[in-house]
Amino acid sequence: MSDDLATFVPGPEELAERLAAVDYLADEGLATSLYLALALPQPLLLEGEAGVGKTEAAKALAQILDTPLIRVQCYEGIDSAEVLYEWNYPRQLLRIRMAEASSAELSENELFSDEYLVRRPLLRAIEHPGPRPAVLLIDELDRADDDFEAFLLELLAEASLTIPELGTIQAAHPPIVVLTSNRTRDLHDALKRRCLYHWIDYPSPERETDIVRRRVPDAAPQLAGDVASAVRRLRAQDIQKPPGIAEAIDWVAALRVLGVQRLDEPAVRRTLGAVLKYREDQDQVRAQGLSALLPAGADDGD
To answer: Hey, CA dihedral for 198, 202, 206, 209, is it positive or negative?
Structure first.
């Protein structure tokens, strides 16, 4: 860790405090893992259910460090060219035609120069000039295939890349790497061995209430607690897509817009689409009774 970072975040507790200042509440385990990713430095693999705050952790880290967040969103079929670099072929072709029209000489070095290089996220992260390293977020790595994972493993080990026409580029400030996975498939052991690991679980109702209040501060005082309890009950049911923290925040925001002060059955009925995104899940919850989601003693209304 650089002297600047060591002064800025001398320990996990200070890091947690700075994250809380930007409305990201990290428990002791996550704050420690993020701190170690900075101090060692070493890539950090965050796993957990969708919507528990894995991506937000990287965003909040970049925010408190006042450094760019460079994100690679993984998907099936992604390859290295899409995240490293490519040459601007239309501009190169135009340059060739201009040279031909003027009978000027055009060397290969001129054509494959920095002027025609299109930088993709990984190259931008490696070239980041500092003074603090960029935060490189490799989001939902489990969606990519084995070949991309193997390529990424080599890049993370070296913090450099080679462009045949230009040579090897070594990171002056190796990026802080955060990888996330929803565990739709298991990642290779070789990659996990090179990473710190932390599993982000659903927060307690009290912590989730605090998170939601921070994100929707103008909602009715008791509404965040009502929704946190309801979301916890939904997660206990056998549904396809249990709601994450993001859905809890969206639900409270929707209820606030409608002027709801406390969660009741009519409010749940009107806004269920803010928290459950599958028709089958909604049908199942309705069949079991919306009143089961309400806080004890709530008025079911009309």
So the answer is: positive
> Is position 301 within any domain?
no
φ/ψ of 36, rounded to 5, equals -65, -35
Neighbours of 265 (CB within 10 A): 18
pTM summary value: 0.87
d(CA 123, CA 81): 11
Predicted confidence band of residue 300 (pLDDT cuts 50, 70, 90): very low
pLDDT of 106 reads 84
In angstroms, rounded to a whole number, what is the distance separating the alpha carbons of residues 172 and 182? Answer: 31
Mean pLDDT (whole number) for 42-47 = 96
Q: Which of 199, 232, 262 is the last residue of a domain?
A: 199
- What is the count of structural domains for the chain? 3
Query: Of 177, 199, 221, which one is at a domain's C-terminal end?
Result: 199
Residue 263 placed within a domain: yes
pLDDT digits (tens, 9 = 90+) for 202-242: 999 899 999 999 999 999 989 999 999 999 999 999 999 99
Domain range for residue 163?
Answer: 3-78+124-199
Q: What gap in Å lies between CA 287 and CA 276, rounded to an integer? A: 14
Token digits of residue 52: 């528990």
Q: Evaluate if residue 276 carries a pLDDT over 50.
A: yes
Tokens describing residue 214: 């921070």
Cis check for the bond before 131: say yes or no (omega within 30 of 0). yes
Query: For residue 157, is pLDDT > 80?
Result: no
Residues 11 and 133 in one domain: yes
Q: Specify whether 66 is located in the same domain as 110.
A: no
Q: What is the CATH number of the domain that holds 148?
A: 3.40.50.300
